[in-house]
Amino acid sequence: xxxxxxxxxxxxxxxxxxxxxxxxxxxxxxxxxxxxxxxxxxxxxxxxxxxxxxxxxxxxxxxxxxxxxxxxxxxxxxxxxxxxxxxxxxxxxxxxxxxxxxxxxxxxxxxxx
Amino acid sequence: xxxxxxxxxxxxxxxxxxxxxxxxxxxxxxxxxxxxxxxxxxxxxxxxxxxxxxxxxxxxxxxxxxxxxxxxxxxxxxxxxxxxxxxxxxxxxxxxxxxxxxxxxxxxx
Lengths: 113, 109
Known about the structure:
Chain A is mainly beta. Chain A contains no helices and eleven strands. Chain B starts with a strand and ends with a strand. Chain B has no helices and eleven strands. The A-B interface holds A 31, 33, 35, 37, 42-43, 45, 48, 50, 55-56, 58, 88, 90, 92, 97-107, 109 and B 30-31, 33, 35, 40-43, 45, 48, 50, 86, 88, 90, 92-99, 101-102.
């Protein structure tokens, strides 16, 4: 059974640009969550999607957005990149999103210069 | 909101030693997971353990939900056990995992 796949693995972008990250969950899983990890803030929740609907959103500015497709694949977009957006972005997949185990992809390491 | 505290923040041990990592949480949870983050950043699932005790090889975990804590035991440590260990919890009707700050474990040969 394939795991959670995140693409790309590494990205270097310039301030002001926008970026789109992709996450393909485990087959059959309908919940996808996104987290940002930085040395200073630890792991922070961005948003969660289930059956193409956003069910919860963390405390991030509107520059951070996401969506989920009918095949459960998810994308997150960050517009007008800032230096502080440099981080490891992790995607989690689970069957329902609440009382089920979450599995993570390898992450996308974004560097903003 | 719910608070998750992990201790100790750092732990340095010799190969072969045993260790106990602790996770305290401030409210009732219906989901608790332990992860090991490797040097490349990937979070590896260790245990899904909202309550009770589980064992997997040299690792075991116990969650006492009524007292709001969980313990991760690592026996006969190996250098490959090095990394950061995270505890994460989820509450009823809440779709996000709340994370502890992690325990950084260094196993010296």
